[in-house]
Amino acid sequence: MLHIDILSVQPQMFGGFLSESIVMRASKKGACEINIVDIKEYGIGRWHKTDDKPYGGGPGMLMRCEPIFEAVEKCLAASTSSKRARVVLTSPAGKKFTQRDAEDLSREEHVIFICGHYEGFDARIETLATDLFSVGDFVMTGGELAAAAMTDAAVRLLPGVLGGGPAATSSESFSGEGLLEFPQYTHPVEFRGMKVPEVLLSGNHAKIEAWRKSEAKRLTHKRRPDLV
Fold first, then answer.
1. How far is CA 4 from CA 7, 105, 149, 150, in A?
2. Which of 68, 100, 106, 160 is most buried, by CB atoms within 10 Å?
3. Which is nearest to 27 in space by CA: 144, 149, 155?
4. What is the C-alpha to C-alpha distance for residues 130 and 40, in angstroms, rounded to an integer?
5. DSSP one-letter code for 200
6. SS3 state at 92
7. Cβ(23)–Cβ(151) under 8 Å?
8. Separation CA 174–CA 205 (nearest Å)
């Protein structure tokens, strides 16, 4: 079973995420266990302070070392994993998260996400991390949405979570050959002049497979040439 700890100063953001859809199903099936850790519980002083002004001046506030180190160390101490936990720091300066990374995380036993906030982290916090991941070339106000996205991407790959078994994810975008997924259609056959391609109605599985591969390559070249 995959155990995920998510460390955040805004734990309430994960309420709906954990109680809906695939993530909830995975938890109920026993495929994963997700624990939300409030970093403020490890904050400093009467007001449980988790941030401070940067040395050298500058805008914003930085997350302090002490609360995060203590929270991570407690999660590690409670771990029953047979191997070292993956500790993921959400950061716009990190490596862009990909389907391959989601596959890697889905094979782990213990993953800890540390959600960034404010202006960023004290740089010493990076020494805790095995990975720095970004979900795109943009900046958000916190790492909670990024951590939720990465959690969802990994959890849906766990055995038994999605209906249809391994076939449900084997032909998705970025899987296999790394191409975008081919177009798919359902009823009706024609809608407002737009028709389902004849090959998909032919019943010829060899021709359908060849069409799907061709379309996947065409769409990848058109929309994401950087993947080719």
1. 10, 10, 13, 11
2. 68
3. 155
4. 23
5. H
6. strand
7. yes
8. 23
User: Angle formed by the axes of helices 21-29 and 144-155, to 10°?
Assistant: 60
DSSP string, 129-150: -SEEEESSSS--SBSHHHHHHH
Q: Kindly tell me the sign of the dihedral angle through the C-alpha atoms of 20, 140, 8, 107.
A: positive
Torsion over CA: 86, 144, 137, 32 (sign) = positive
Return the residue matching tokens 């009706």: 188
Q: Take residue 168 and report the two structure tokens written for it.
A: 């449900």
* Token representation of residue 192: 């407002």
**Beta 62-63 vs 51-52: how paired, if at all?**
antiparallel
Considering only the C-alpha atoms of the chain, give the largest distance between any 2 of them, rounded to a whole number of Å. Answer: 71
Contact 136, 146 (CB under 8 A): no
Tell me the H-state helices in 55-135: 65-78, 99-106
Comparing C-alpha atoms, which of 180, 7, 27, 12 is closest to residue 88? 7
